[in-house]
Specification:
- The protein has helices at residues 4-12, 18-25, 29-41, 55-63, 81-90, 96-110, 117-131, 190-204, 233-242, 258-269, 272-276, 283-299, 309-316, 412-420, 424-434, 444-457, 459-472, 477-490, 517-535; strands at residues 144-157, 164-174, 179-185, 210-213, 220-222, 230-231, 245-248, 332-337, 343-346, 349-352, 361-366, 370-375, 380-385, 393-394.
- It is of the alpha+beta class and 536 residues long.
- The chain has a five-stranded mixed β-sheet, sandwiched between helices. A four-stranded antiparallel β-sheet has the order 8-11-12-13, with no helix packed on it. Strands 9-10-14 form a three-stranded mixed β-sheet, with no helix packed on it.
- The chain is flat and about 115 Å long.
Amino acid sequence: MLDYKTIIIKRYALNLSGREIARQIGASKSGVNEFLKAFEECDSISYPLPNGITNYGIAELVYGNPPGNNGRNPNIEYPDYGDVNRQLSTRKNMTLVFLWNRYKKKCEETGRRYYQYRQFCEHYSEWCAENAETLHFDAVIGEKMEVDFAGKTFEITDPLTGEIYTVVVFVAILPYSQYIYAEGMLSVKEPQWIDVNNHALDYFGGVPALVVCDNCRQAVIANRDWIAPELNKDYAEWAEHNQTVILPAKVRKPKYKSSVENAVGILEKGFFHEMEERQYFSLEQFNQDLWVFLEQLNREPFKKKEHNRYFYWEEERLELMPLPSVHYEYTERRMAKVSSDFHVRFDNAYYSVNKAYVHKEVLIKATAAIVRIYSKQGEFLCEWPRAEYKGKWSTNPHHLPASYQGYRQWNAAFFINKARLVGTSTEAVIQNILKCRKYEVQTYRMCLGVLNFGGKYGKPVLEECCRRAIDCGKTTYTFIKNTIPAVADEMGAEVRKCSTAPEEKGGYAMSPDSADINKLLSRSRELADRQRGGDR
């Protein structure tokens, strides 16, 4: 049962969307939104909730009675799947879409709520598993797509380096029409997995109600009981974006994805033999050949029935759900700490975050185009266009303190006084670096990097390197970084293992001999003599 109290609080107290609530509590977006809609339509209960009410009590008020077993809502008419299965098995050209429309019409006439098409299909697959372990799964038009990897791999050779790369072939099929799609991949990580699934939907021209996959790590994290598998988060979001349902096959049960197993066999026993005799120098070249062979295969006449795959696909694509307007984009997730310069580092670029989160951990979610930053609690903080090159700084001045120059973390005075302890040349380099960017805070990491070399190579070496940088007119961190090893070698300095890098705490840096008693007395006498001269 859903945690109804948590859903209501997050929606009305925190103003979170149904998608965000579902993500935080680990539930489906459709389930959360369905409950919120029922709650808003209910006259018996509203927010704020009555004191002491339980989830059970909320369910009784919203639905009229508590939820039934297996997570099914008793207020929704459960289809007669025994009759559905008989109709599909005995009547020629009967479709699941037709039977769902009949079920929907019957519910509307009796005033009962009904399942949407994809839920109808999902429950039908569960019914089949529960009622007949050895049941023959008849292909239903537009119902599902099966995906898998081929066992056969190929090689491509880099024409410049001669390096050899392995190509893995992704295979997808619509069981009803037996229409096949395949694509070579150099990597089988999540971003590439999402891409090839997008390409398969594009090729088929629509979205099926179900996607049956193998238990590969790109799709499934755990599948112990098959009824409630733990899906890869990105693949689950991909399915949510496309309004389909992921249904992993049972472990070591090939018949649950028999169509794609058969498709892989057709490819491996067919034109794969011809392709392995060819030499490829790019993935694009390999895929072009693969798609030419696929086009021929999909238009070849069947041996045991009329027409070909293309003929039945033209019929099936009309039953598929429409493609979304944009592809789902793979999202990278990473925790990062906001540094003293009010920026987080991600993929070798820097993005500012509100000053209130300095030194706190934040969650970064990045697509190919957008970087979004959230608090650890899931609160959205800001978003940036993803940097086009390494080292780019993206800074919002509103994220900085009103006078960040005086902020007691990293600041110009802190770095200048640290550099002054090394020498005049180092101080001059730091002052130039502080002026080289639009916002001073964008230079703090470079200043820290320069001063760190003093701990690694010694202050004399850093001072000499900075002097040469000034002579060359190249007072940059990059020049210092590339030059200082050679300067250290010339001066015979030993590289130290322990760095004496400045701490992040900030403050005013003082020379170690600034507290010498003789210097203090001398300074005191000078001030006294100056005061007496002023009195005269």
